[in-house]
Amino acid sequence: MPGRQRRGRIDYRSGWRGHEAASAYEEDLRREESEAGWLGETERRLLADVVDRRFDGREIRYLDFACGTGRIIAFLEERVSSATGIDASPEMLELARAKLTKAKLICGDVTVDSSVLPGRYDLVTAFRFFLNAGETLRSEVLRVLHGALADDGIFVFNLHSNSWSLRSLSVLFRRHVLGQTWWNQRSFLQVRRELRDHGFQVIELHGYNFLTGKGVREVGALRPAARVGWDALRGRLPDRYGPDWGDEFSRRAHRALAPGLSILDVGSGRLPTVSVGRRPAGCRYVGLDISRAELQRAPGGSYDALVVADVIEPLSALVEGFDLVLSFQVLEHVKPLDQAMENLRVYLRPGGRLVAQLSGTFSLFGLANQLIPQPAATWLLRRLLRRDPETVFPAHYHHCWYSALERMLEPWTAAEIVPYWMGAGYLGFSRPLQAGYLVYEEWVRLADYRNLAAYYVVDAMR
After folding, report:
1. What pLDDT is stored for residue 26 in this prediction?
2. Which CATH superfamily is domain 19-210 in?
């Protein structure tokens, strides 16, 4: 049950120090080059063009500021008379050194001591720096670099997220909906104003874009998604819409069962996740639910003990009391989910396991449920899907998406999140609506937009 690393905001003065950070940065560059080699080729072509046109064979004293692991200086060092790279991370410079033949590398922070730059330069580059550096740091660096340029020197840098590009829609979604606040973007007007404030004059602007590996998947998913919609119009749903809805959860839950386990069933109410007849011998089965009435409606003998409480309330009596925690279609009704997940973790003994299924925040029905008042939602479910109103409960969908679940599961020893897409059942009353939804669902599934899945199965070990 492997987890995934989470990105975070980087402090550009110190965040890239250490071998782990430097190696992660280098790996990001390799992945970017493999997915979008055209990007690196474009940058190298533009740099070569600037050198050829602007200097026309003259000697060039060159500085690569924030040179990192040497991607840019390694390309330019043979095209200039002398090349110097500077970075505040000795570990990044260690990786850069292996790529270079004659360039000089300096470890230092020019905003603290500008004297580390030995002279003035005809050409200065700074790539992958100004987008994510803070305003104060940007200002200090621009002041130092302006002073380090020769009178007719050229400063070349990139901005790898333009707030006027189509990509900005994705960044806005990530920042304001998913809470991934480390995603930054800036416009050319903002950058030009900042450059002018520090004495620079913009003489050239080159825009370029590329289709990432995910972008290729997005385009490639359009045709099969349309085919799924066409099939749905003729009454044929994708194979995943078989009779075994919830089968992924059931398989994992039953594989986790063993004789003698102490099991906590969270939010089970009148329908225990594992019926009495399917429990191994010697198991102790405890039901936790906010409603005593729901627990008492369960068939006789369903539970060995009842706990009437909200799952977000820490209960010291349950700490390290269970080998297995089960929860089926309950956690989307909980807020804050982060607190509930931490409670479930401490209720488990070391090595204990959580198996849960929940609905996704950004599923079609999840979004509708958040927008439609509860009485109206209950009426619609009864009228359109013949749902018993007593089985419809208010849902919060708090942090019920893939990357949010990843963050919550970081304290666990191991965790796996399985997204799956089966939301079309809510539109069974209208074949055209269902077909249209399936085009969308199949597209996001094939494009691997995990945050938009209809459901998630969480399998985690304390």
Report:
1. 80
2. Vaccinia Virus protein VP39 (3.40.50.150)
